[in-house]
Write a structure and sequence with these properties.
By secondary structure, the protein is of the alpha+beta class. The chain is built from three helices and four strands. The strands form two sheets. A two-stranded antiparallel ribbon has the order 1-2. Strands 3-4 form a two-stranded antiparallel sheet. The longest helix is centred in the first third of the chain and has 20 residues, at 11-30. The protein is elongated. 0% of the residues are buried.
């Protein structure tokens, strides 16, 4: 299962995604695929700005509800309200 976390990106991943975005922009720009370049480069840039990290998890803590799989990880992300 793919797990997505926001604001969880290291500086190495930020730099890698920046160079990937620039490479996609340059390659698709020279190929004159402007519309495709805008969608792909903006998606890579937006995921970098939001700090999205993608990890694969096992389905041990997954719960199936109405055909959808919901990842239940209550132990690490719960904080006491103050």
């Amino acid at each position: 299962m793919l797990q997505i976390k926001l604001t969880n990106l290291s500086i190495i991943n930020v730099l890698t995604r920046f160079y990937l975005m620039m490479a996609v922009s340059i390659i698709l720009g020279f190929a004159e695929l402007w519309i495709l370049m805008s969608f792909v480069a903006v998606a890579i840039g937006a995921s970098t700005i939001m700090g999205m990290s993608f990890t694969f998890r096992d389905n041990k803590k997954a719960k199936t509800t109405a055909g959808k799989i919901i990842y239940m990880d209550w132990g690490t992300d719960m904080r006491k309200a103050s």
